[in-house]
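Example record

One chain of 292 residues, shown exactly as stored in the release files.
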Amino acid sequence: MPLGSASLHSVFATSIDPLILSQTRTSFSLLVLFPVLAGFQGWQRIRLPARDLAYCFLLGVLGVAVSNYFYYVAIQRINVAVAIIVQYTAPVWVLVYVVARGQQKLSVQKVAAVAMALIGTALVIGLIGSGSISTFRIDAYGLVAALLASFSFAFYNVGGHHILARYDRWRVLFWALAAASAFWLVVNPPWKILRAHYAPGQWLFLFAFSMVSVLGAFSLYFLGLQHLEPTRAIIASCLEPVFSILLAALLLGEVLRPIQSLGIVFVLAAIIIVQRPARAPGTETVVIDPIE
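Predicted structure tokens for this chain:
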């Protein structure tokens, strides 16, 4: 998912404050995206009505900014595996929301897909079958932060799908990043960032991290939200820890354990199950059709 790589963060950014990490990710991405969009069609390319601007502000602050910040707080305070599995309870909250709002009907298919995605993620990251639960650090604030991140992630899946049904992803992404960046400027003004005295290498990491984990990842994820309803999209996002494990095995030579392979199978099965059409007409209702 577009929250970034936990493993990359744990290796390179352990000395960087989660607030500054979250702030620079959105700010650097906005600074790169704005001239690109404005250069093509000018202000018309990114203009939105006031009501939709307010909606993007909520999406950027309560979705992008909050989810990023609390996720990084969580992986600093508790074991990464625990933080990830709590974060990936988000499919549950999305399913509960769309069913409660009457946007979809509860089905065995969706419940099974959500359950398999959660179990698969737990297997992939080693939360199940690790053989030593004592290695997991439990911290109350860290657990609350991870849970808040999961709520926020669920929010921008539902909210993002709603507005992406009417506007292209670049326009929505720009205003979501602008809202998150403005929010962080109020919370943490630039002079406070300068007081941290980060080394050039750390600034380079922050820039590269923002390009990969925000500008690239969010643009692709928003594209998915244009064409998938929130439950399907958020279950597909469970592939993030799967790809992290596979890349670590291919590029870093880490051993892929059988229990992790089983977890990958579970996640892939969940995605296949949730993407299958309903067996009978009327078993699922998608309220908003994506734009073409």
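Notes: The CA atoms of residues 84 and 272 lie 22 Å apart.
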